[in-house]
Amino acid sequence: MDRAVTISQVAALAGVSTGTASKALNGRGALRPETRLRVQQAAEQLGFVANAAARSLQTGRTYTVGMITTDSIGRFSIPLLIGAEDALGAGQMSIFLCDARDDPIREQYYLRTLLSRKVDGIIVTGRRTQARAPIGVGLPVPVVYAFISSADPADCSVVPDEADGSRRAIRHLLAVGRRRIALVTGPEHHHSASVRARAAEDTLAAEGLRPAVPTLYGEWSEAWGRQAAGILLSTGADVDAVFCGSDQIARGLAEALTKAGREIPRDVALVGFDNWDVMVEGCQPPLTSIDMDLEGIGRTAAEQLLAAINGTPAHGQHARPCRLVPRASTAV
Amino acid sequence: MDRAVTISQVAALAGVSTGTASKALNGRGALRPETRLRVQQAAEQLGFVANAAARSLQTGRTYTVGMITTDSIGRFSIPLLIGAEDALGAGQMSIFLCDARDDPIREQYYLRTLLSRKVDGIIVTGRRTQARAPIGVGLPVPVVYAFISSADPADCSVVPDEADGSRRAIRHLLAVGRRRIALVTGPEHHHSASVRARAAEDTLAAEGLRPAVPTLYGEWSEAWGRQAAGILLSTGADVDAVFCGSDQIARGLAEALTKAGREIPRDVALVGFDNWDVMVEGCQPPLTSIDMDLEGIGRTAAEQLLAAINGTPAHGQHARPCRLVPRASTAV
DNA sequence: AACGCTTAGGAAATCGATTGCCTAAACGCT
DNA sequence: AGCGTTTAGGCAATCGATTTCCTAAGCGTT
């Protein structure tokens, strides 16, 4: 545990004033190249690292951003975080991660903390059931919502275009020759579930088709997928494909259908949603799925935040397209 | 975007000096209760939040810690992070999350950044095949390794006692009457795989038993689990239980065994490792598993870090016991 | 030689909060 | 009434780096 090195020590070693040392290290001012070099070597020798607090006190910038996950840090937050880090890391910014755990009190507490730390901006994220209330109004720093969206249209939100994902899934199933397509998804009150289902239905309708059976709403679990398989089988409906609201549902369905003697994809083709590695690869056969490109969303959100920090804020909701990743569960 | 409120504005509004305002807000000095209240109300009214940079410049403490994940932020990092946040949040500290992505250059870069931000301490985490080299020597702040351990025994590491987990798994299988137990796990060169396997073998040996077949090493995947099932069946060995090195392996095994007509747990009991919710619950039947209590490890690591920050550092490797979570796959 | 101009680098203010020291007022005591 | 003691709160230094302004030295020119 050494003692921290300050710029005055560097200046002293190089035989200059602290002001000159600062200029030398930051490439400012008019200095002889030789002096500059001398200071840099002194800094190197002492292992000098500038105190960020002192610097930000002077400059007003901290080069930090806060990331508040409103519900718990989960599977979805990781790629978002990685994407954001990518975009920010290049600009040398650090991220404060705050897990509000779906508690408004915690959320406001974290917001306060971030403001006291004078972050340059804030990214708000979380799994969405629907648009959320803005985290604050008249905040002294820009805020960008990622994955989740703000109810205030003046706020900047970056979200996946889930309807686009659904359309891709349905078009893909149609392209591989399926026509009797069923939809199995999560809770009806969940924004993602209803948006995805509706877009799928609309895409079918555009082809003059309807779901093979009325859309089945349930939960986001494998258990529900298995249960839904039973329901589908029991109706006797002649289904040749199922578009699922999540990979977990798809996987449960795959398991139960296989057990009941249906062969995937020959008898029934399957498409999931999320493209969650362990699920799509663990599924038998491997699962075709829709990828929301969460990393891209994280990256875009961070870029929007940087733009806002630099004075050119974007507004409104930015929907990013999804991507279909074909695998054996829909192979022709 | 309001302008930030400083303590001088609060002081002015309350009609006192900045020094007095500071004392009033921090409960220091000798002030009339009435004055204190007046300042507090002024602060409230203006929405004053102290500038953390200015404060830390003066006090030397930043109330922030850095968390560096050496390999990518993954499934294991989340509970660790949550645990750490728990322990630190209570003490009002914030966490800088840095993802080094298994790149030593990035790692050193992040270390530098954290030091410039004068974090009070650093938690290093990551999944590793074995103990890692210390992240730095003679650092000006305390460091605690979580989940992963440092090769330097003088460093403080908090890790799961994986051997303990294995013993619990084997004892549980013995307790439910199994004797012909097979072991299927990850790559032999992977520290966790070998430690878990060896502890399991030793526990069996202590009962005068040996694994039903030589330990099968492979990868940490469901695919390997399925493949291993095939191997077990083909040897014709009369196995009545399998202890797997991960939940994914166990799940693959469960699927393949069921398909081959074996009933779980009647014919073969299964124990996994990690207690990963989606795996243990998705498995049919639900999987008995070993929980390493990652949240507890994160919490303990943070507590150790706080202790070190407060001047009483711990040294050496602290192994924390695991927990067996019984489910249907080993039900009697 | 005297003047003006450029260049290199120093001195000091500044950012915002904390804190040690000091002083004026109020109080109690003889 | 006078003196010592307590109390309340102000003043100013401080943390470390940046930045503006300023000055001294060095140069060329006539």
TrEMBL record, chains A, B:
<dbReference type="InterPro" id="IPR046335">
    <property type="entry name" value="LacI/GalR-like_sensor"/>
</dbReference>
<dbReference type="Pfam" id="PF00356">
    <property type="entry name" value="LacI"/>
</dbReference>
<keyword id="KW-0238">DNA-binding</keyword>
<dbReference type="InterPro" id="IPR028082">
    <property type="entry name" value="Peripla_BP_I"/>
</dbReference>
<dbReference type="Pfam" id="PF13377">
    <property type="entry name" value="Peripla_BP_3"/>
</dbReference>
<keyword id="KW-0804">Transcription</keyword>
<dbReference type="InterPro" id="IPR000843">
    <property type="entry name" value="HTH_LacI"/>
</dbReference>
<dbReference type="InterPro" id="IPR010982">
    <property type="entry name" value="Lambda_DNA-bd_dom_sf"/>
</dbReference>
<protein>
    <submittedName>
        <fullName>LacI family transcriptional regulator</fullName>
    </submittedName>
</protein>
<feature type="domain" description="HTH lacI-type">
    <location>
        <begin position="5"/>
        <end position="59"/>
    </location>
</feature>
<keyword id="KW-0805">Transcription regulation</keyword>
